[in-house]
Write a structure and sequence with these properties.
2 domains, oxidoreductase (chains A, B), homodimer, Rossmann fold, about 325 residues
């Protein structure tokens, strides 16, 4: 079989293999979007843990708005893998992060799942090429990397391995969009994908600082929550620095702060700021700004940061604080 | 003179030296908090640019709430440095990021400013030890590093140089808190301080990815705004990973994902995960959690992420979307 058994719109049942924090979070997300979910996890007490996870997530999902017919009652914990994937139109694997385990498990899932059904792995960083080695039909195996908790954070990174067929990557991307995800479809394998490479660089610098007594855990968290972290849900790091350049944008920012790139501000060495890299960054920001002027982007950032701050930290005694989002968003 | 001329509560006038994006942002912040601001910048058209910056920021500041008597009319652009610092109870320097320039300018500001008045530099990363070399009374010179825009992002990192007197660091920290800032007072100099080291590590990884054609500018920004960036205004990177560990918290997270630290997920090498570092991270998270249980932290994160999402991206047609913050905060 060299293609999907149906379209993403045909799916009514999703199988979740592995029911830890991530697998349980996926189950909650699919349930909230109105799917039946069949879950299997070989661990002791997995069914009870899964119920607790879904129960804990449900108030948040209700707040966000449930799909028609969505119910935690549509969750079935099955005693075997075969029963979980039976009748599933999509399989999400979220087992512990161990390469030998993923290899064997994905081969088992592949053997048990009807042909043409896409199987996605929640792996945090293994390339699918390394995980699909034991599977009989590796063409329908993709990475679908979520962020914790999968029922709230929209991002999913989708990428195939060398033996993955292109239709599976496209099908998974479309399916995730259909269930409300923000999808980045990567055209090549990269350890850690994109978002984990970015947050891992930050995380390693944080660990170095704690290891050297340069900052405490609490100072590191405050530095982010009260600093750059307030901008990042509004504009990503590139557009943020585009605005830091003032009206000259990313071009001025790179030309002015270029020398700081060589400063020992982090333990990560910077790439050489070639003309080509500078021009790519400038062109990328122009493309992303999509015609919004500097003043418009500044106003957008200001409205966004204010909305975030008022949503998270309403002034004491201001009972209408929550309505700031209305004006500020 | 070995101490301050007055308390932070005595200040009524602030001098802003340098009126670019950062200096202008500081001026807007101090004006909104009810201070008179005297600003000097030797550049062509600086006074007009400063007026535009304050004007652009004022709607956001009005939305956040102005102090009694706050008015953009209380801004005076002066033709000389001496006139700017005359009568000021605090001086904020925000000149371009050049070490020779900062050295000379801080010496000039020091010479013109009455004794006992604290002078803070907005430098993005130079240690004060390297900047205070030419000043006659370096004891009152501190770093007060803000984030763009200074009128919205609360974080200020305060640290002295080798010749800075401890009272000046304490005085500046107290003054910034008084004007509504979230202050991290560092006990040692570190290039890039704390927040810039963290975001610079992320930024360098992003530049490497663009330079190698591994990701586009837009993919990098989406990876943050729709992924980890949604969590970071709620919980910083340490508490975020504390929750990624499930009920086992940071201890389980480090024990389980410890091996990924050695994976090539970023170009930044990880520190050795010694027992001491592991224990410091675990203890730091426990201290920061301050008695909040895993379930309470998860609920807090979920409410926070939902509040952020609804504030920034209200569902189409949902006119009450902005009130989500009220329930979610």
């Amino acid at each position: 079989m060299s293609g999907p058994v149906g379209t993403p719109g045909d799916v009514t049942t999703v199988a979740c293999v592995g029911a830890g924090v991530i697998g349980g979070g996926w189950a909650a997300h699919f349930l909230a979007r109105g799917y039946a979910v069949r879950a299997w996890d070989p661990g002791d007490g997995a069914a009870e843990r899964l119920s607790r996870l879904v129960e804990a997530a449900w108030p948040a999902l209700t707040e966000l708005g449930l799909a028609d017919g969505a119910s935690p009652e549509r969750l079935t914990a099955t005693p075997t893998l075969a029963e979980a994937v039976e009748g599933a139109g999509f399989v999400q694997e979220s087992a512990p992060e161990s390469l030998p385990l993923k290899r064997t498990l994905l081969a088992d899932i592949d053997a048990a799942t009807p042909q043409g059904v896409v199987i996605a792995s929640s792996t945090s960083g293994f390339p699918m090429t390394d995980m699909q080695t034991e599977a009989s039909t590796p063409g329908r195996l993709v990475v679908g990397h979520p962020f914790n908790p999968p029922y709230l954070i929209p991002l999913v990174e989708v990428v195939g391995g060398q033996r993955t067929e292109p239709w599976a990557v496209e099908w998974a991307s479309e399916f995730y969009r259909r269930v409300g995800k923000s999808v980045i479809t990567m055209d090549r394998e990269l350890p850690g994908f994109i978002a984990n490479r970015l947050q891992e660089a930050l995380w390693r610098e944080a660990l170095h600082m704690v290891a050297n007594g340069e900052a405490t855990v609490e100072q590191i968290d405050t530095a982010i929550t009260d600093g750059p972290g307030l901008r990042w849900p509004v504009h990503g790091p590139c557009l943020t620095f585009h605005l830091a350049g003032g009206e000259g944008g990313m071009a001025h920012m790179l030309d002015h702060f270029g020398p700081s790139l060589q400063a020992p501000w982090t333990r990560l060495e910077a790439p050489e700021l070639t003309r080509a890299l500078r021009d790519d960054m400038v062109a990328g920001c122009a493309s992303e700004a999509a015609g919004r002027t500097f003043a418009e982007l500044v106003a957008e950032r200001d409205r966004g940061v204010i909305a975030v701050q008022r949503a998270l930290r309403p002034p004491a005694g201001d009972e209408d604080a929550g309505t700031a989002g209305e004006h500020g968003a």
